[in-house]
Amino acid sequence: MAAQETLARLRRRLAVLEAGRPGAAAGPVALGVAEVDGALGGGLARGRLHEVVGEGADAAPAAGFAALLALRAAGRRTLVWVRQEGLSAETGRLYGPGLAELGIDPARLVVVSARDAAAGLRSGLEAVRCAALGAVLIELWGEPKVLDLTATRRLSLAAEASGVTALLVRIAARPGPSAAATRWAVRSVASAPLPAGAPGGPAFAVTLLRHRGSAAGRGWHVEWNRDDACFRALAPLSRAVAALPAGRPAGPRAGPDGGGEAGRGLDGRGLDGRGLGSHGDGGRGAGGRRAG
């Protein structure tokens, strides 16, 4: 019943957005890094399904990178973020001020809390079908049976029909059969420090595992530029980077449904140290409007 009520609220919200939608953007979604955009044929294909995989401690960077891709794709349109329940306990709740610091406007963000992977896929598919949206991000845990090639094909076809870019984030999961146009593996890296030793922006090591029509396997280091709302190339740091503590466990721990570790929380420490998410936000989610 709760899942049906969430889906009904989402449909009502999408109907409102459909009635007053702004003009759609055209062309690929440029990341802002010439080498990456060139490898993608100009940028991330708009109106397609793209997949981001995060294993173990790379869960927070994977979600953060996907959210910033979704921001680039959405433009001035609304972004819908569907999250499976249980992820908040592992990676932290979404935190409005932290998202705003990255350039994500909470006023143009709709957060959907899905009971399980099946409910997340239903809500995500419903959202992708709404041509008024700019992008839809679907964040799921583990390797549920419902997330198969057929499910990703439905999302892919819906994205092509509506023109809405869909980002599927798979936390604590290995790559599997998928109809996604691209697949990315993401991990965090040290950012370039700002003057006076202030922390830099979120930095990622991204690997293009799959890209239709071109050779995959290429990787880059990129950093998010909040002022320009785009990525930029990150040069290797000349200073040494501290190693992980010797006592840090290397193996996965149990997650929401017995899966592997989702990694560090979205409290910013896994990305930029400035509070992308927090357990202390009173359950308000991302600070945007909630549909569930």
Describe the protein's architecture and organization.
By secondary structure, the protein is an alpha/beta fold. It has one domain (2-20, 45-194, 201-235, 258-290): Rossmann fold, CATH 3.40.50.300. The chain is built from 7 helices and 10 strands. It has helices at residues 2-19, 34-39, 59-74, 87-91, 96-102, 117-128, 149-162; strands at 49-54, 79-84, 109-114, 135-141, 165-171, 182-188, 203-211, 218-225, 230-233, 289-290. Strand 8 (218-225) and strand 9 form a beta hairpin. The longest helix has 18 residues, at 2-19. Residues 238-287 have low confidence and may be disordered.
Helix content: 25-40%
Give the N-terminus to C-terminus distance in angstroms.
12 Å
Strand fraction: 15-25%
- Structural domain count: 1
Structural class: alpha/beta
Query: Radius of gyration over alpha carbons?
Result: 18 Å
* CATH C-level label: Alpha Beta
